[in-house]
Amino acid sequence: MQNAVTKVAVVGSGISGAVCAAILARNGVSVTLFDSARGPGGRMSQRRELSEDGKELLFDHGAPYFTVTNPDVLSVVADWESRGLVAEWKLNFGSFDCSSNKFVNIEQQERQSKKYVGVPGMNSICKALCHEPGVESKFNVGIGKFEWIEKESLWSLMGVDGQNLGHFMGVVASDKNIVSPRFTQITGQSPPLDLNLSPEFVKLHNIPVYPCFALMLAFSDPLSSIPVKGFSLINSKVLSWAYCDSSKPGRSSESERWVLHSTMEYAKDIIAQTGLQKPSKETLSKVGDEMLQEFLSTGFGIPQPFFKKAHRWGSAFPAASIAKEEKCLWDKNKRLAMCGDFCVSPNVEGAILSGLAAASKLKGMLCSL
User: Fold this and answer.
1) Where do the TM regions start and end (predicted)?
2) Percent of the chain having pLDDT more than 90?
């Protein structure tokens, strides 16, 4: 068994956890990454669906793209671009007013900030980072308990099924729900991390979050009546954003695929009626019908799609930033870091910055041991 002194557990394979894991591994740290999902990506994951006739359909149903202004993140993204993991999405975008049923703004691509996407899917970046040398990734493994062993100065991790997952010198967690009552509301179990172990993390206790529904649509023919490939919606109670996912670089153009995002208010109303538990098929079907109807009512003569499926992001966007200066939460004595967009800013760039900060804290601490 490997010496625990060189081992770090990273919990969560979204962009923040994946960036942190890859940087630690490149600096000689042995990283084991755990995620309860089937694959990497978190809110940058890609969804694989099958149409009724068995056709494979891929959707980026979370973050549609990301922009970058921070120099540290720009250099990271330049590296990804050189490795073919990201590309620029060079198309025109706009804003559509549902009151007047008109576009009030169409931005020419040259005047926009660069929009980056993962290639061939948004999850490609996390996928590559999670499989870098020195990172052992374990999917379908949820963490049930983080236990601090004082006399050995080590962390012991246990799976939700009670399985012992090993001892680690340090832990990085990128899921804010590990200390939140929200975890109990969703699973019926106690949060995996006892706040008494790291009182510094009390800020995590109840970070407000904004929910969102995503609707994945596939059409047989291009929606050529829509003059842009992505647009925000103004004065709609149901939709906030629509984009042509198949127009991104590196995507299959066999069918035209669109993703719609609901407004926060609409998602909140649905959750108020149905609860935080996993939504039923009936709920998702109703949501899908309502979101599609709003899209069809834009007046572009949009035909019925041959595929339609809704997905709920229960905590799509954090409504607070809890570590803007430090960019991550850090318990030096127990070598425990918490990173994610909720630390810096509610976007991909914020998540990357937080992952870089957490890696820096652990790297510095482990080098001094």
Assistant:
1) none
2) 82
